[in-house]
Amino acid sequence: MLKEELKQEITKLKEAVEQHQEQVKDLQHDLNTANIRLEDIDKPKLTSKQFEDLHCAIEQGIDEFDFDNSDNYDLELSIGYDNQVEIERIDFKEQSELADMVVQRAESVFGVADESDDEVDKTTPSV
Length: 127
Fold this sequence. Notes:
Layout: H1 3-41, H2 48-64, E1 73-79, E2 85-92, H3 95-109, H4 115-123
Antiparallel strand pairs: 1-2
């Protein structure tokens, strides 16, 4: 082979590699999408209205929490170089209370089905 033929061969191979890299990227994207769909397939589905109601319930639960109450936080204080008291660290210690408020709000919007009800629905043949 001549030098020019080798250069042309190298160019063709580089183009083929680049083309296949694009195909690999497309296949990887398709694979990721399929994995996400597989994870979502068994999740319970909500209508747009139900999801909006859930969103509002969460917002209301958070809004009802008193974030201004200093008893909800643990503070670690220090004295700075200019002799001013500084807050070194703030820890929010009422996560469970906040979570309870949000869950209570969500429960006020949605009913909770017993697992035994779900089992009956799965085992009952459709007519």
